[in-house]
Amino acid sequence: MRPPTIHFIVGRLVAVGTLVIAVARARIARQRGRDRERALHVHVTNMNPCAPQDGLVTLNFEEHRVTQQLADGTLVIHSNFHGTGSSASGVEYVVNRHQVTVVVGQTGSATFEVRRISKGSGDNVQIEATRTFPPVVDTITFRCVG
Questions:
Q1: For residue range 71-88, what is the model confidence (pLDDT) as tens digits?
Q2: DSSP readout, 28-87?
């Protein structure tokens, strides 16, 4: 029996590669339009703009994300974040954030609303923002509420 030639080996590799690509494309086609969910853990350190005297606030978030690809190729991502943490001065915080991101081709936009509730005497903060990309342009407003 002759050893396999290089053409035979390359032919087999191409056949296997084609099969793998076909299976991957079939899976992607089945998932289109279907929601995909993920839970992520995010850590953030920043200031409370309504209570800077609290110092840096370290927050731990869990994000629940649902991603959907529409028939026209638009990608829509709904994210809900719930977080807790404390400031350098010991003030505890609870934070909720809802965000919707839409990506069409190479451009996208996101809108989000954040409610950061202080368990201390400092003001709470409500943040509303939009982000467009590329280039990244942020529009952020916040209100200090008692």
A1: 999 999 999 999 999 999
A2: HHHHTT--EEEEEEEEEEE--TT-GGG--EEEEEEEEEEEEE-TTS-EEEEEEEEEEEEE
Report the alpha-carbon distance of residue 47 to residue 54 in Å, rounded. 8
Give per-residue pLDDT as tens, 37-75.
778 888 999 988 898 888 999 999 999 999 999 999 999
* Tokens matching residue 132: 């467009």
Structure token digits, residue 39: 């839970």
User: Coil, strand, or helix at residue 124?
Assistant: strand
Residue the block writes with tokens 């191409």 = 14
The sign of the torsion formed by the CA atoms of 138, 141, 76, 116 equals positive
In 3D space, the residue among 44, 50, 46 whose CA is nearest the CA of residue 83 turns out to be: 44
Angle at 77 between CA 75 and CA 81, to 5 degrees: 170
- Angle (CA) 113-145-61 rounded to 5° is 40
Higher pLDDT, 50 or 6: 50
Please identify which residue in the block is written with the tokens 């829509």: 76
